[in-house]
Amino acid sequence: MAILLATLTVFGAYVFGSDALLFSVLGLNPPHLDPFLATMCTPIRSAANAKVKCVYKPSQLICTQTCNDGYTLDDGSRTSSLTCDTYNKWKTGEEFQMCRGSGVMPNTGTGTQTRSCHHIHSVKDCPSDGDFADCHRCDHFISCAPDGAFLRRCPLTTYWDDIAKQCLTKSSTCTP
Fold first, then answer.
1. For the chain, how many helices (H) and strands (E)?
2. Is the pLDDT of residue 139 over 60?
């Protein structure tokens, strides 16, 4: 019986494979591998300034994000993990926390907020739980929650409107 090894790769910040998924070319799966795991764990985005590596375990997919050199998570660490299993799907959250460099969000020059903006560099800067403008990019916003501050991207061709508190095709609070 032949066993194949597939390698996990990240394309465009999405995870699309596995690092150690073993399966038989004859269609006979090892008894410890749950065949539904690969389809139940939806792809997740890596944070900006980070790399993600995922490993299949007997009934879990564990994805570990490592912040690039010079970047850390809000708690000062450089790594965090998310776990998916066949029973709870992503049981430790469905997105990674932001990796921040020098405690300052880098300016990528992709927009200007047209109203005052509260700079959020870590979870302690969050004014409250909820969604807030990214002061540097119109196509991003920051979600503040008790477990961290998360940089999120609006769908393509939409921009964060901090009054409406949603991504819209035309923002009244940010000029791309």
1. 1, 17
2. yes
Residue partners of 15: CB distance under 8 A and separation at least 6: 8, 43, 44, 46, 52, 54, 63
Of the three residues 90, 117, 136, the one that is the final residue of a domain is: 90
Residue 101 lies in a domain: no
Query: Are 8 and 82 part of one and the same domain?
Result: yes
pLDDT at 40 over 70: no
Number of domains making up the chain? 2
**Residue 64 pLDDT exceeds 70:** yes
The pTM (predicted TM-score) of the whole model is 0.41
Q: Measuring CA to CA, which residue among 23, 14, 2 is closest to residue 44?
A: 14
Angle ∠(71,90,125) on CA atoms, nearest 5: 40
Q: Which of 90, 119, 143 is the last residue of a domain?
A: 90
- The C-alpha angle 64, 98, 174, rounded to 5 degrees, equals 145
Same domain, 128 and 79: no
Q: Which two tokens stand for residue 154?
A: 């609006």
Rg (CA), the chain: 19
For 144, the domain range is 106-175
User: pLDDT per residue over 142-164, tens digit each?
Assistant: 888 777 778 888 888 889 999 99
Report the 10 Å Cβ neighbour count for 8.
Answer: 18
User: Is 80 strand, coil or helix?
Assistant: strand
